[in-house]
Amino acid sequence: MSIRLKSDESFDAPLTAGPGAVPQTSDGTFRAKGKCSEQVMKSNIERLGPFFAKGKHLNVVVETPKGSRVKYAYEPKSGFFILSKALPEGMVFPFNFGFVPRTLAEDGDPLDMLVLNEEPLISGCLLQVRPIAVIKATQTEHGKPVRNDRLIGQALGKETPLELQTLKLEKKVVSQIEFFFSAYNKLYGKKFKVIGTGGPRKAMEIVRRAIKLWRKKKDH
Questions:
Q1: Is the pLDDT of residue 4 over 70?
Q2: Which of 1, 53, 61, 71 has the CB geometry, 3.0–4.6 Å to 34, for a possible disulfide?
Q3: Confidence at 22, pLDDT banded by 50, 70, 90
């Protein structure tokens, strides 16, 4: 797979060394070598539905790996993953972050998914994810609060042990997520506030509502 990552003017963190480093080309872009073209990759992601198989699990596309100082974002127009933001020294993303295809959240973006697996995953990785919870939250910018819920899930593979398939969201994890997003949003003049949590059923309700919003926008 070939992914071209565009550089951001405000980004100054070096990507020439360390885990996940991407070589910089002479034109200021970052390129990862692979086997498929932009159009193939774009068509693959664009045709993905939100549900895997019979609807018990979700399709999730990873954008930002766990442990990364760099936030990547999928750009539907180009089919590339672009550099979005860079975190300050000492601050990293604590989980793998991705999105559920063909959904639309209230903030105008696809539904976010935090994947609790231990290992960092690459941008563009397609996962089969079991939703285990949702953190209901508001994000305030310029004095206007907007719902910005965070789905929590566990990526499953064919060999996933049964004990991992019943993972539950602990209060400690909720506190970690709230702390990270509060600090993260503060960097950009925003406020993040957790207003509640819900289990798998509530998470799926939010997914179905986001699917309806996506279809409504597409029809118009």
A1: no
A2: 1
A3: very low
Q: Could you tell me the end-to-end alpha-carbon distance of the chain, in angstroms, rounded to an integer?
A: 33
Following CA atoms 121, 106, 55, 173 in sequence, which dihedral angle do they give, to the nearest 10 degrees?
A: 50
d(CA 50, CA 32): 26
State the total domains in the chain. Answer: 1
Q: How far apart are alpha carbons 72 and 130 in whole angstroms?
A: 23
**pLDDT tens digits, 32-48:** 444 444 555 566 888 89
Please indicate, yes or no, if residue 14 is contained in any of the structural domains. Answer: no
CATH number of the domain within which 74 lies: 3.90.80.10
CA–CA gap between residue 145 and residue 185 (Å, rounded)? 13
Look at residue 20 and tell me if it is in a domain.
no
Q: Is residue 169 part of a domain?
A: yes
pTM, two decimals, is 0.75
Phi-psi region of 77 (alpha: psi -120 to 50; beta: other; left: phi over 0): alpha
Question: 132: closest CA among 192, 58, 214?
Answer: 58
Phi and psi at residue 123, in whole multiples of 5°?
Answer: -60, 135
